[in-house]
Amino acid sequence: MTEPREGIEQVSSKFGITPEDYMLPARTEIHMLDINGKLHPAGEQGVEPGHEYPLPSPKVLVDAYEQLVIGRRVNDQNSALVRQGRMAVYPSSHGQEAAQVAAALCLGENDWMFPTYRDTVAVMAKGVAPMEVMAGFRGDWHSGYDPKKYKVSIQSTPLTTQLLHAVGVAHAAKLRGEDTVVLAMCGDGATSEGDFHEALNFAAVFNVPVIFFVQNNQYAISVPLSAQSVAPSLAHKAVGYGMAGERVDGNDLIALLAVLRRAVRLAREGNGPLLVEAHTYRMQAHTNADDATRYREDAEVQAWIAKDPVARMRSYLLDAGLLPDATEARITASAEAVAQTLRDGMNSENTPDPTDLFAHVFSTPTTQLTEQAAMLADELAREEETR
Amino acid sequence: MSATATTSSAANGNVSAATAAAAARTATTGTQPVTFAKALNTALADSMDSTDSVLVFGEDVGILGGVFRITDGLTKRFGTNRCFDTPLAESGIVGMAIGMAMNGMRPVIEMQFDAFAYPAFEQIASHVAKMHNRTKGKMPLPLVIRIPYAGGIGGVEHHCDSSESYYAHTPGLKVFTPATVADAYLMLREAIDSPDPVIFMEPKKLYWTKEQVDLEALRISHETAAVPPTEGRAAIARTGTDATLIAYGPSVSTAMAAAEAAALEGRSLEVIDVRTIVPLDDATICASVRKTGRAVVIAEAPGFASVSSEIVARIQERCFHSLAAPVLRVTGFDTPYPAPKLEKYYLPSVDRILDAVDALQWEEKA
Fold it and tell me: What are the residue boundaries of the Dehydrogenase E1 component domain, all occurrences included (chain A) (predicted)?
């Protein structure tokens, strides 16, 4: 087993830089597209030694764009369903879809993802059936999909606790000699939590292949990043743990794919964990229960809307001749099909089975739970009689 | 964590003696004096030997063998991939164990002391306890969190908490606490085999107690399922007819001593060792109380809103018409665990138990 410190020396020497330079993020965030969807000149795309990122292939970009369009449609459809009273809450990632899509598409079939409550689009992009994801939001149960089947953990509501689970999954795979990579997601506010620190430190000490992917959307509900951290960037936190950090334009799908795909490759090759910070923006409120006008100016929101990830990517693909009408029509249709699935699923009546309350607390219910289940069954039977 | 696990030099002396004795015995054959610590150590080794996915990790559990030497020799025998030290962070240890259990391992992790497990509480309450339920059983978490707990060793502050009620109150956690050397072996093996997460609470004052035990016979009986499981099965540690003492973990030996003393005064006390707090064996407890008509519940933890209050409530709900007297309790006071020179005033004692038994309205029996 390579010692973590030796590993950093080996990989940094491959890039011809010092371990410290390898661990530090690029001097400015990596971006490839400007806000109008034009490719930056090659000399401005991330050219520092150790921070060079080649353009992904056209197929990768068009496939990712399809997921991007679906992701935007999922966010907006779900927000509409909340307004129609079909579910109590949906934390939308509107504006963050590029980061969501890249997080899923950088992974291989056997790789795991650990999402948060705001990462529904990423979960669907990794292949989880839409209505299995939505069961949690519909209120049927706390989660609706099988984490083992999809290699996607359930969406975490507590902040950063899931990063440690990601470290454990990667550690177990490493002990068995498997080359599984795990991508663990959190937000900017979550980097203040103690488990963020413990997870990054454990991952680095045990030299396990975890990508910590921080979507810095500038707000933790109402509290801006400036009240969470005064680090030069969140990506700079990596160096304190002895791992590489990188920062990327989180509304630039091409840059995100380039950075995350390389991070996954480096991790899979045994170079240890990496931290990637994506600069993006939560364009809408925290949830429908929140009022973002109480804590931020409209001008700020408008400036970010101008950097919308979907419009930028579409402009690029059109200019590059990669989005003929037929392709665009197909993509629009597949997004509409997912939206239809969501509408049909959320509008159908579904009554969860009350006996499930007791069935899954343990692998076999205890005597006490069996007694309580009988009590509820009796209560329901009496209600039925009086009806 | 503090290097001064205990302030009592006598206790430290016992640790060394026990370790030396353990090292001198590489294989047990036949019945011989075995410490509680050796029984736990052997259970870990036997589980690791029988199941490759069993991993042991925590603070100082590697080459040192743990501050109480419960993991002594495991790194040497099974290698650093199977028994290893972690960075000093309890939430990290539990959180990583969750991920390992999600991915096919059976981690057995050590929290160095009761009060040092509190940083891991969110991981335990929000994830260890709930993963099976929230995934409708699709993601079981077979892991064991070993916690040395309770006092009676002259320990420094934050080293003697009785924290079992926090875990017992959290649906989804099983809570085991052995009181005998044989149970230390059998219950730990059962906990490691369990498909559910188990909080395994080890009364640290018992680590150096010795009993005549045949560990090899216990191993064979466990592996051939020749003994009934301990989970959900309280033990009748002593039979009696006049009143029932109900205790668990560190309080069982105190209850046994009280029953011995009461016998000299002509009073026959039954002693129930709860063994697994979750799941609780209502049937055995209630059968005994219905027989004797009187009960005292004994626990080191502060009595307020505790496992002891739960047991009393359940007895009143189920055995009211069999009771000749209110069910009483002898518990720790509702104070933080005291400094070493004051712990004798805090801990349930034989005298305090006998006083409680005397108060069970005997005059009305005749």
Answer: 69-337
